[in-house]
Each structure stands twice: as C-alpha cells, then as structure tokens.
Amino acid sequence: MLQGCSADPFAWLGAHRRPHGGWRWRVHLPAATAVSLLVPGSAEPAPTFVPGPAPGTFTLDTELPLEPLECRLLVKWPQLEVQTADPYTFGLLLADDDLWLFGEGRHSHLWKVLGAHRLSLHGIAGTRFAVWAPNASSVAVVGDFNVWDPIAHPMRARVNSGVWELFVPLAAPGDAYKFAIRDAHGQMLDWRADPFARRAEHPPRTGSVIVAEPDAPVALRPLAGPANRRDQPISIYEVHPGSWRRMAAPGRPEGRMPTWDELAATLVPYVRDLGFTHLELMPQAEYPFDGSWGYQPVSLYAPTARHGDAQGLRRFINACHEAGLAVILDWVSGHFPTDAHGLGRFDGSPLYEYADPREGFHQDWNTLIYNYRRPEVRNFLLANARYWVEEFGIDGLRVDAVSSMLF
C-alpha cells in the first residue's frame, strides 16, 4: 500500500469502525509533520494522530459523535498549515449506469464522467478524477496539489469496469496533473496525461490541467444564413490558425501565434469577404509539436493552448456564425502518436491500439492505430465527436485519414 501498489486504498486508509466501537482513522501524508482531527461543535481539544504504523502514516483511535465526512483534518507541513477533508472518507463517485454504458460503448456524454471535474461533495470543494486503465495493478493521481508524489493519492478501482476514481479536496483549477500507473506486474510506467483532459499544458510541457467551470460560459450562437442548407453550394476555406498570420511579439522575429479573439477580428472577415461559406480548421485538439499542423493529437478533448482557452474558441466560432460562416473541424480518429505521456500502452498493455502491430502500428507515419473492436475505444472517439459539436458549436467534422482507416 505504501508503495502505491494497492487497487483498494480505501480498505486501509480513511476511517473504519472498530469491532468494539469507535473509529480507527489512518491517513498517509508522507511530508506532513503533524495531523489533528477537527470535529465541528466539539469543545474538546482537537485529537492528534499518532505517527505510524509505517513511515508517512498517521493513526487515530477515536470516539466520534459525528460521521467522518463531517470532520476535517488539520495538516501541518514544514511551512504551512491546511484544513482539508480526507479523500478516503468519500463513498463511490461514479454511477453504476455510467460505468455500464461505457462498458457497452454507448455513453453519449462520456467527457462528463471521465477526466477531472470540479464539484462539491458534502460541502467540500474539490476535483473528481476518473480514468480507464483496466489492466493496471494500481493508479494514483499526481499533480501540483500533492507535489507530484506518486503514492500520496492512490485511486480506487471500480470492479469490472476498468475505471479508477478519486475525489481530491485540495486539487484546484489551474493545477497540472497526470496519472501514475503501474502495469499488471506492478511496474511503474511513464506518467500519463489524462485522455479526457479538457485542457493541457502548452508543449513542451505534457501535463493535463484542471479546468474551472466558467461563471459565465460563452453561449453558443446558431449559424446565421443558409450555409448549411443542402440545396446551397458550398466553398470551404481550410486553414491552420497557427500559421495563417503571425502577430508581432517583442524579441521574437518569427512572431507569435494569434489568439482566438485576434483570429475572430482578422480571419473571419477575410474568409467571408472572399465569398467562402465554410471555414475548416485543421485539428485543434492538443498536439505535442509546434512545427506540425496538429494531425497527431495527444489530448482529443483538450483544445490546443496555442490560441487561448476554450472560451476563446467558443467566441471565435460564434464570430464565424455571426458572419454566416459554418465551421468544420478536421478530426483525427484514425491514429495517435507514440509519445510517452499519451495513449500508447496506456496501462502497460495495448489498450487504445490494436495488440497486433500489423494492425496497430502505422508504418508510414510511425503512429498507433485505434482499436475499433473495443467498445470503450469506440465510445472514446464517438463521444469526442459529439463533444466538439455540443460544447463548441462545430457544424461538421472532416474525418482525417479515411483511406488509411479503410485499407
């Protein structure tokens, strides 16, 4: 357990009823100097956890007038003191129906279930993490909130689904994170980015980022005009936003990539005035190499950070619609790169790709090919198509590399 090798950390950590009454509470906080229990409404001094039984752990035997979820931990670190809830006192997080639909390959809004999501449980604000890694022996979430400690936050395996979950109270918007996965033999893999992350760090950094749900999300505006009517001619302007026009930047002779708002002010009227009906964006899912056009994406659910945040992309698409331009997105659902933080052998086994390299490795592009036989992989892709349409107002998808997928 202390090496992060347990599939059920909740069996050991958290508060457990003792056979003869009361609770035994155990926490694992390797860098803490002291831990106390705060009981709301109690006039008694806060009971203090005793170090042990193993290095980095603290244990408390206590009689509680309240349920453990109503209590808080006071954790003292070398340079600060924090009040928080214990992640290992929370119950199951994901609904059985969600897991069943995912296993069937039929969850239409999968991005709302897997990945990192800010929410409040029992009055505690935090982030729920969930990742699919069915052949892993253990999974932990690591990030800015736990100083990237691979044994600080082991996750719980949901039996028969292959999904791992954990609610972390201190994980906040803007924190970078990854998953520390051990394969079926207990060997630690390269830390993986979240396949369902809705934001990623700008390359060359490779972490996923927790996003905040915006207080005032950009309302999607419908397309103005007849551009998408079947009886109307179409003319498509395909563009790579990062190289269409560079913006002046001090100390950078080559300039910088434009923001979505700058593209809305320049690209949209340019395409409209030329008489085009549709604007086709080359892939906008996060990809690792600035010199490419995005056709080897690593994070399909994360709009690239090169032009700003997701709100900026929504504003850009709204500007296109107001100008009468429909927006098509190049969508790469046939293959993915072999970057160590990506999907390749995600849990130590061929998971997103075919096991047989004659099917699973694209020799022309040195990429891996999605395993369409797995219902979970099909669900990952189909939900992603729906994600771009529903969350950003994309009017259509142009599927890349179809001939490779067919032949």
Write a short abstract of this structure:
With 407 residues, the protein is an alpha+beta fold.
How is the main sheet built?
4 strands, antiparallel
Shape estimate: elongated
Per DSSP E runs of 2 or more residues, the count of β-strands stands at 25
> Structural class given helices, strands, pairing?
alpha+beta
Q: Order of strands across the widest beta sheet?
A: 1-2-5-4
3D architecture notes:
The chain is α+β, with helices and mostly antiparallel strands. The chain is built from seven helices and 25 strands. The chain has helices at 96-104, 241-244, 260-273, 310-322, 357-360, 375-392, 402-406, and strands at 14-17, 23-28, 34-38, 50-51, 57-62, 72-76, 81-84, 115-121, 124-132, 138-143, 156-158, 163-168, 176-182, 208-209, 236-239, 247-249, 252-256, 278-281, 285-286, 299-303, 326-331, 335-336, 361-362, 367-369, 396-399. It has a four-stranded antiparallel sheet, with no helix packed on it. It has a four-stranded antiparallel sheet with strand order 8-9-12-11, with no helix packed on it. The chain has a four-stranded parallel sheet with strand order 15-18-21-25. Helix 3 (260-273) packs parallel to helix 4. The longest helix is centred in the last third of the chain and has 18 residues, at 375-392. It starts with 13 loop residues before the first strand and ends with a helix.
